[in-house]
Design brief:
This protein is mostly helical. The protein folds into 5 domains: 112 residues, no CATH class; 77 residues; 57 residues; 58 residues, no CATH class; 36 residues. It is built from 13 helices and no strands. Helix 6 packs antiparallel against helix 7, helix 8 runs antiparallel to helix 9 and helix 10 runs antiparallel to helix 11.
Amino acid sequence: MSPRTAAPLAWSLCGVYFLLLGFGLVVGLGATPTFSPVGLDVPVWSMALLGLAFLAFSVMGALVAARHPGNAVGWLLLAIGLSGGLTLALIAYVATALPARRWAEWISTWISTGPFTQIVFVLLLFPDGRLPSTRWRVVAWANALATLAFMAGSLAPYTTQDYAFSNPVGIESLRGSIVQDGTLGWVLLPLTMVAAAACFVVRFRRSTGDRRLQLKWFSFAASLVAAGYLVLQAAWVSSWLLPADDTVLVGTGMLVCVLCLMTVPVASGVAILRYHLYDIDLVINRTLVYGALTAVLALVYLAGVVGIGGLVREVTGQQNNNLVVAASTLVVAAVFRPARTRIQGFIDRRFYRHKYNAEQTLAHFSARLRDQIELDSLSAELLDAVNKTMHPTQASLWLKTP
């Protein structure tokens, strides 16, 4: 497909996603349903958050597909966005009193699994849209079989718990089979995900140059998704421990998780389009520093509010102690700067040793510069500092005679 044909098609599909998202939000806010895809039960506002994540997949997928129509990754990102948008729209439709709700619910049962199988294909094909070798075709075919298994599972008889809908298709011969309730698909999907992750690791270990930087962008985004999931789980646990509104804590956790999920299409687009490709090391460094800093400050705050606050409540009998909250906030503000400095130093020493050694060399040279007055010795130390920090092929110093 030529770029002249691919660009209108890609952006048209992205426009379809906007229509689906708008329909889902308008209908969902009017019907105030309980949003429950793939066994999750969360309020309707989560539809907007998930819509934001799928928006990133649609836009970046359209951008990549329009620029590189021969790369399947762009079309897969676009498909993930469309699958998510269609699922949100159908679930919002089911919560209304409009006709054909059973059919909408039936379609959503197997459309909602689309992003899971599609992300496996992204792992297999990223970044050039081709498998590393023919041996990985087995994983691709197994993932395709999982997709078909989910579709076949939607043909088996079932009754939904939320609305007591029966399957409008309901083939009795599939009752009790291996495909009912997507059993075969849910067995194959974890296996293909693990195999696809192994494929990505193999590709990363064999890569060099720009290809390695591309894979590093994607792996960085994947690590953020894992961190976002941990934040969401921590929010669920904290909602039980802290005397606060559960909706605020869980909503904050979901927002962080969705923002982390959005980095997957963004990082994929940056890597494939090679926009600021060489900034990945700086991005990772800042993420490690501020991610660790946020975790440390959160632990300090929780220790103050939960630990000391619980002790104060036991002594005073007061359920709400604003003084403990204020004191915990002041402690967090006080330890911010020293904690950041120590974390930055630890990460530089552990993961960026070259940068750390260069900073130490420059600091040593600056100290010698204040005391050294002999020009020959100063010139030699300057050249030595340049060689240790910049590692040039050749270095020389020219001095202008007065």
